[in-house]
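User: Predict structure, ligand protoporphyrin IX containing FE.
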Amino acid sequence: MGDADAVAEPIVEFAEATPYEQYVGVRALQALVRPVTDHPAEPSFLVVTQVMELWFTLLRREWELAQRLLRADDLDGALSAIRRSVHHLRSLDASWGSLLWLTPTEFNGFRDQLGEASGFQSYEYRHVEFLLGLKAESVVRPHQGLPAVHADLLRALAAPSLEDDVLAYLSRRGLPVPPGVLDRDRSVTHEADPGVTALWVEVYRDPRPGNDLFMLGEALTDVAEVFTTWRQRHVTAVRRAMGAKPGSGGSAGLAWLERSAARVVFPDLWAARTVA
Ligand code: HEM
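Assistant: Predicted complex:
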């Protein structure tokens, strides 16, 4: 056999933990998988929740990066980050598949041991919502006991959302963003604004790839759509696993979640479809 046919084998000698372990931290990850019962259904519930937290963190990174790039007038860079985030969102959404087998009997087997713990208390999820313009002071309050987390959330509540940065960028590109929108109160949920809706209608008049603002509008619409799908599938997962029982976090459960999931992300991009 000549040298041309030799296929190198992987390195198998390491004096310490493999470079893979040093990079990925598998032992640290495993140490975090600590079910509170012996119920066979609980590990999947815990791991899927932890995996979703990691997706939230990644989304936050992508959108904060997109904000920095937009502020530097780098639309191509921002668009890449937003496009990547759509793929992350699809993977986040696909994670529901690992929980859909959970029956009420199985969930009841470990639910009481979770006490008052609820996804409502996820602060990474709140960062995701705030970046998407869904703002509320009330969802910051549960985190008073963790001062660094609380301060970071309060900062994010008052800071521009991804949409605020998009509108500031559009304004710098010479589009007529109403001044009242540019300096609106950032700590409340965005509502559709006729001036911003009209602006998107104009952008969408040329729906071709060469129109970079149209591509931005579509990428943001993808974000809004897949995020909404995740929230709707959460509602369905809840209906399947516990019906209309009250939530462990103290809410009415299904009815409360349905109302929360109905909030609209990037309302002007949707309103523009009505006006067009
Ligand atoms: C089938 C399993 C699940 C059930 C039965 C369930 C149930 C609930 C309920 C009843 C609420 C309302 C608040 C309350 O009173 O507790 C809620 C909120 C929430 N859950 Fe879940 N959940 C499940 C899985 C998950 C997973 C895996 C995540 C991922 C982190 C998650 C994230 C959230 C978030 C972010 C909220 C707040 C939603 C909002 O503010 O609109 N849930 N969940």
